[in-house]
Batch of 2 targets.
Target 1
Amino acid sequence: MNNIILSASILSADFARLGEELRAASATDLDWVHIDVMDGQFVPNISMGPFIVETCNRITDLPLDVHLMIQQPERHIQSFAKAGADWISVHYEGNPNIHRTLQEIRALGCHPGIVINPGTPAAVLESVLDMVDLVLVMSVNPGFSGQKFMPEMARKIAQVDSMLKQINSSAIIQVDGGITSETICAAYDAGARSFVAATAIFKHPQGIAAGIASLRNAVR
Ligand code: DX5
Ligand code: ZN
């Protein structure tokens, strides 16, 4: 067993068979379930809300890793916590109340995570880095699954890694977007330890278990 945390994004699951697909994923050595929340404002796409988190919570015992791509996330974190989120990650971009929001996520009993888009430099994280349990470095522009990994994000992951080491933080670096058995190593070598994948897991030609195994085997 290696030291990576694989988080399966249900954005690419077949929603007509969500229970079945999530149970199949949970029967493997998968670590977390990633839930992509999109509001059609912060990102062009609209996806799912607390109701789906609550549904996943009934289907699986795995930790639920909720990625909020929404405006004013502070208005909704309580509903996501109540629905069963274990990790709640919010974007730095466009969130003037980010410091308070991260405090509130922790006060609600969840692990707070901060997310930065490809166009946002690592330096903005400095004032909130000691408040978070996870830093999510986006390796695609958020909004859709099935996009291509941006290799230049490896440098940003390495920067975040050294910023975390400087403050003796054990926060996890997560990477999200275009993670496949070909791209996962570049992110791992840069310092990421949690990997989100939608297409590589739920659309793997040999099935969900094969998708999870091929990601894990790629970094063994
Ligand atoms: C993108 C989402 C990702 C997405 C990943 O906005 O945050 O979690 O589902 O999809 P893949 O793994 O297909 O790039
Ligand atoms: Zn995501």
Target 2
Amino acid sequence: MSITVRAAAKINLHLGVGAPRPDGFHPLVTVYQAVGLCDDVTVSSSPGWTLGVTVPDWIDADAVPVTGDNIVDRAAALLAAHHGLPQHAAISVEKSIPVAGGMAGGSADAAAALVALDRLWDAHTSDDDLLALAAELGSDVPFALIGGTALGTGRGELVEPVPDTGTWWWVVVPSATGGLSTPTVYCRFDELRPDAPAEPAGAGDLLAAVESGDPERLAETLHNDLQEAALDLRPDLATLIDLGESHGALRGMVSGSGPTCVFLARDADDARRVAGGLGAEGHPVVLVANGPVAGAHVVTRA
Ligand code: ATP
């Protein structure tokens, strides 16, 4: 038997970051949106454990850890231990989400692996248990399970869907010169914002904009507390954001911890125009995606 599960990249429409908690994690108030840029995880029955990764030519294959260090190994080990099952499967991960790009590609793979292996092993994990296992794997993994548009609190792992009446069009520009490590960006945030409040900035205006479906309103309320740190580490991104806006994007910003930049467009046609403009300026990889899309879900079963 072989099962393929698809999981989407996320954009943080709002990312409010507070001062580090005693456990070292930063408290977050974030609004996630799943966008149509997806990794596929295929699992097949096998007497042992193998993991392979394929990437498009614009992703550096060496940036994705092989078996042993891949987050998919950890997801499988956790699920197997939860049910007292042997960790047996042949897995292939087909990546399309930028690596170390602030779009939670690894988290998407972990969520997809949980769902796929749960089916392969006939484990019937409850939704609550899947969410708890996901939270152990990483702060963004529970959202990758549920998808759509959701409010994230705690360290981002406590997720609840929010009303969203829009179809939002995004232009996504992965970095051509490598990723940014999320811990490095948080460290820089701590240096730049020693006075960060314990309570992160709330998302009230943004939630109202999302519910309204109005892209101009959403553009005004997008917010990323990590942007200053990401731009400090990668000043070239500020130029890219200006360029996207000069080509007609309603608003450009760093995605999560970066360095991927995302641009909100008025509609699909505008998104194609902005993408064309950025491509013509020499950006080698410019993608268009819309959101919200579904969380991790089975696409083929054979
Ligand atoms: P986030 O936005 O959740 O902080 P990110 O999108 O910036 O994460 P990821 O693509 O999830 O970054 O990768 C973060 C690190 O995780 C990579 O540098 C890589 O070493 C490691 N990693 C482990 N497994 C995977 C995987 N399946 N895909 C991508 N990266 C992985």
